[in-house]
């Protein structure tokens, strides 16, 4: 199995099925967890020197951070309903608590924070899906934490790729801090597949092929992208969702396509 692939775990008593840290990933910025809670179960965490974005992938919850409380949040049963999620941004040196109403799937996105920012609720009314690409390269993209003033480090996006289509395509990279021409960002992909017994493929590779890994990803797997290009393909019959977390030394998303495949941008068939 590839060292860039983290399989979902089901034997964790606190509900964690994924727990990626900078130490476990051997990088500097991105942390990522997935927690599955049952009715009435609670999760409490401290942000410490990090900022967090807690995405309700599916289910409902009551939540609080400091003096702020939010009740009965979460509109969708799962990520394939094509409605944007509820999410909670938590700044550094704050705590949050979430209580499940029924079954709850949470993704906790983490990155270093430089300033103090208040906790805030992000609602579906503030978000939208946009179509990107065309033909078998079309997918739906929802920017959850992406605006210029949203965070210090975090970039959080979810994507739905129809069956038979490609995503993160043409292959692109953002691994070099190079002024306005490219930014350096680590990235995780949390994959969900519909129906859940399916699979998808993701390749991570660099120009010099010092990294060249092609992975069969299953439902609830995480792929880590420390650098390089990272296209994804969804087989016929299986719809693909993924949640991206990106962070690096600067909060800029500037990428470059693989020059061998950049011609695809003009391909209209």
From TrEMBL:
InterPro entries: Deoxy-glucuronate_isom_IolB, KduI/IolB_isomerase, RmlC-like_jellyroll, RmlC_Cupin_sf. Gene3D superfamilies: Jelly Rolls. The keyword Isomerase applies. Its EC number is 5.3.1.30. Pfam families: KduI. SUPFAM superfamilies: RmlC-like cupins. The keyword Isomerase applies. This is 5-deoxy-glucuronate isomerase. It comes from Parashewanella spongiae.
């Amino acid at each position: 199995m590839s060292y860039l692939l983290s399989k979902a775990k089901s034997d964790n008593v606190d509900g964690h099925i994924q727990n990626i840290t900078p130490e476990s990933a051997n990088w500097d910025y991105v942390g990522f967890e997935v927690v599955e809670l049952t009715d009435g179960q609670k999760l409490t965490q401290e942000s410490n020197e990090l900022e967090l974005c807690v995405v309700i992938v599916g289910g409902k919850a009551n939540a609080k951070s400091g003096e702020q409380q939010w009740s009965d949040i979460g509109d969708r049963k799962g990520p394939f309903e094509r409605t944007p999620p509820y999410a909670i941004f938590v700044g550094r040196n704050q705590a949050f608590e979430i209580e499940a109403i029924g079954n709850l799937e949470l993704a906790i996105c983490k990155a270093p924070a430089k300033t103090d920012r208040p906790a805030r609720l992000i609602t579906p009314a503030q978000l939208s899906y946009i179509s990107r690409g065309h033909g078998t390269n079309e997918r739906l993209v929802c920017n959850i934490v992406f605006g210029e003033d949203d965070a210090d480090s975090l970039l959080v996006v979810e994507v739905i790729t129809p069956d038979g289509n490609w995503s993160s395509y043409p292959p692109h990279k953002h691994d070099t801090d190079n002024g306005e021409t490219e930014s350096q960002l680590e990235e995780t992909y949390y994959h969900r597949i519909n129906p859940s017994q399916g699979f998808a493929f993701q390749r991570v590779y660099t120009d010099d092929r010092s990294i060249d890994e092609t992975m069969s990803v299953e439902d609830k797997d995480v792929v880590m992208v420390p650098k390089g290009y990272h296209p994804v393909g969804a087989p016929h019959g299986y719809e693909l969702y993924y949640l991206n977390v990106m962070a690096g030394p600067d909060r800029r998303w500037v990428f470059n396509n693989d020059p061998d495949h950049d011609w695809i941008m003009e391909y209209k068939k």
